[in-house]
Write a structure and sequence with these properties.
The structure holds two protein chains of two kinds. Chain A is mainly α. Chain A contains 21 helices and four strands. A four-stranded antiparallel β-sheet of chain A has the order 1-4-3-2, with helices on one face. In chain A, helix 17 (342-350) packs across helix 21 (398-422) and helix 20 (383-394) packs antiparallel against helix 21. Chain A is globular, with a radius of gyration of 27 Å. Chain B is built from four helices and eight strands. Chain B has helices at residues 2-13, 108-116, 123-132, 139-172, and strands at residues 26-27, 41-44, 50-53, 56-65, 68-77, 87-92, 101-106, 120-121. In chain B, 21% of the residues are buried. The chains are: A mainly alpha, B alpha+beta.
Chain lengths: 423, 173
């Protein structure tokens, strides 16, 4: 029997690289008379044939109907998100902890003493400079909303203690309620918005004498403890005899093999090939969680996939799906910086959230380069007038915003009319 | 006296034995004070040179199933059985994976420690360390690679001559 230690090591390199293939409609026998007639080959042999054909067809690019089912199942998966994923601290990441201990560290990011974003991420050079600004962070937290029904829908944390039963007055109940909401803010921590990381293309040595010595390339990783994930040496010796540093994809794979992050797969699920199937059924939140789990926020894959999700929400106007979740801040930031805010404004006006609308416009003028209009707007407090000025200057879909503004204009006129009459 | 002269002659002319990498870690005279570890012994050779005396060896310990080997890079004594160890330093997977890569992991901090205290790495481990770039390439590796190339050239020539003769025969017949 294999002992635990070398079972783990043995499986590190080979287990996760064996992908299970859906064998198709002939995967299981029917046990009908027709099946029993085919006695030339057993049903197991026929199943193997099906699998081999499907693998060959998949490499050529053929799409199967059954893939939709698989992708749908993957999109419905609710994955608990861990703060581990953000921290590059080797003391936190590389520990060989059992699940229970990990979950305890999960829920207390502030106990590390690092509330500042820059201290948390070792790759702080890639953070978007507009995202770091404390003014922007405050606005994004205010826009997000705090509906307790949505925040506490799922079990967020494992129970550390037995539940307590207490007798409380109404005031004390309210206090506890607010304390719970404040404690829940750690689960609404926004994932960082980063610029794309630059590709690695460095050659360390070239030995021509080793040309043809090996038929396959060798990958070396440094396993020394207490090193940052970015500082490890991962090096590839190719069949030419060329020694080069590993690319970002190879790095992610090796670090997942030797220093794994929880719930991350080495072979990425088929969800990410085609997001349209998952987004049809409005699983945006689950999809975003899985993107966070599987990819680093630096990587090109993460940025492209989140773009697709945000664009889809923008087109449909389905901002309710991400409201009072941790992903709303990223949405709003992306739209202000790279796209237009018009649809978001219309959503806020339809749902009668005027303060959030004014905050949005403040955000817009914080991020964009300064102009004469930005100074005017910061002096104004009234939301309706802010929206009017914004529509006049920089809105693309002016008509729709004016339509949404109409119900507020009448009440606004009444207020100003009354004040004038009083004067 | 005879021994001294023979050693001096061999050192100048070159040794007659086949190429052998030195097992010892040569060390300056009076280097005992540099090592804090009490287990370290400095031995004086007949020449007057000094080397570290340690029976530690870095080698590959075999694990895995039938038709599926898997090695662990391990520090142990020479007299120990193959799979026993004092410390494990890394792993090596000789079978290439889906992407035609062979995965090897080495804990370079502990490697440095053990090499400094006189552990002797075996040929296979020496080749891996050389291929990774941590230390220069092993001379045994380069000689083997050159021999491989020559053999392949000869095989290509033979096969090309064989094809040429077949073409001649077919054209003649």
């Amino acid at each position: 029997m294999m002992s635990l230690r070398w079972r783990i090591l043995f499986s590190l390199s080979s287990r996760r690289l064996c992908r299970t293939v859906y064998s198709g409609p002939d995967g299981l026998p029917d046990f009908t008379r027709e099946y029993e007639k085919n006695t030339d080959t057993s049903w197991e042999a026929r199943k193997l044939k099906n699998i081999r054909q499907r693998v060959i067809d998949k490499e050529k690019g053929k799409k199967f109907e059954d893939l939709e089912k698989i992708v749908d199942d993957e999109a419905r998966r609710i994955a608990p998100l861990s703060h581990f994923i953000f921290s590059d601290d080797p003391a936190v990441c590389n520990k060989d902890l059992m699940l229970g201990q990990r979950m305890e560290i999960l829920g207390n990011p502030s106990s590390d003493g690092k509330n500042n974003i820059k201290e948390k991420y070792s790759k702080s050079s890639n953070l978007d400079p507009d995202f770091i600004r404390p003014e922007v962070q405050e606005i994004l937290k205010r826009i997000r909303g705090k509906d307790p029904k949505i925040i506490f829908k799922r079990k967020l944390e494992r129970n550390k203690e037995m539940p307590k039963i207490q007798l409380l007055s109404d005031e004390q109940l309210k206090q506890k309620y607010e304390e719970a909401l404040e404690a829940a803010e750690k689960f609404l921590e926004m994932p960082p918005v980063m610029t794309e990381r630059e590709p690695i293309d460095e050659e360390l040595a070239f030995d021509e004498k080793l040309d043809g010595y090996e038929h396959s390339s060798l990958v070396f990783t440094d396993i020394s403890e207490d090193l940052n994930r970015n500082e490890r040496f991962i090096v590839v010796r190719e069949t030419n005899g060329k020694l080069r540093k590993a690319t970002w994809e190879e790095r992610d794979r090796m670090l997942q093999i030797y220093f794994p992050k929880p719930q991350r797969d080495i072979l990425k699920p088929e969800l990410f090939d085609d997001l349209t199937v998952a987004l049809k059924n409005e699983f945006h939140e689950n999809v975003l969680q899985q993107i966070l789990i599987h990819f680093d926020p630096d990587s090109a894959n993460y940025i492209n996939l989140t773009k697709q999700v945000y664009d889809d929400i923008d087109e449909k106007g389905a901002f309710e799906l991400l409201r009072s979740t941790r992903f709303f801040g990223g949405l709003a930031f992306y739209l202000t910086k790279h796209k237009s805010i018009d649809n978001l404004l219309i959503y806020f006006l339809h749902s009668k959230l005027l303060e959030e609308a004014s905050d949005l416009i403040n955000l817009y003028y914080l991020i964009k380069p300064k102009s004469e209009v930005s100074q005017q707007i910061q002096d104004i407090d009234d939301a309706v007038e802010k929206v009017k000025i914004f529509v006049a200057n920089e809105a693309i879909n002016a008509r729709a915003i004016k339509l949404a503004l109409n119900p507020f204009l009448k009440s606004h006129q009444k207020r100003t009319g009354k004040q004038r009459s009083v004067q | 006296m005879v021994r001294l002269s023979r050693l001096l002659r061999l050192r100048k002319s070159g040794f007659d034995t086949p190429l052998r990498v030195s097992r010892f870690r040569y060390v300056a005279h009076g280097a005992n004070s540099l090592f804090q570890n009490a287990e370290v012994e400095v031995v004086e050779n007949f020449d007057g040179t000094c080397h570290l005396k340690s029976g530690n060896i870095i080698r590959l310990a075999l694990d895995g199933c039938t038709n599926r080997p898997f090695y662990r890079i391990v520090v142990s004594k020479r007299t120990d059985p193959r799979d026993c160890e004092m410390e494990q330093i890394g792993t090596f997977d000789p079978m290439p994976n889906m992407l035609n890569e062979k995965l090897c992991s080495i804990n370079f901090e502990r490697l440095k420690y053990h090499l400094a205290l006189g552990a002797h790495p075996v040929k296979s481990v020496r080749r891996l360390i050389g291929l990774s770039g941590f230390l220069p390439l092993d001379p045994t590796l380069l000689i083997f690679a050159e021999g491989l190339k020559r053999r392949r050239k000869i095989e290509e020539l033979i096969s090309s001559q064989g094809n040429a003769t077949e073409d001649d025969e077919s054209s003649n017949s």
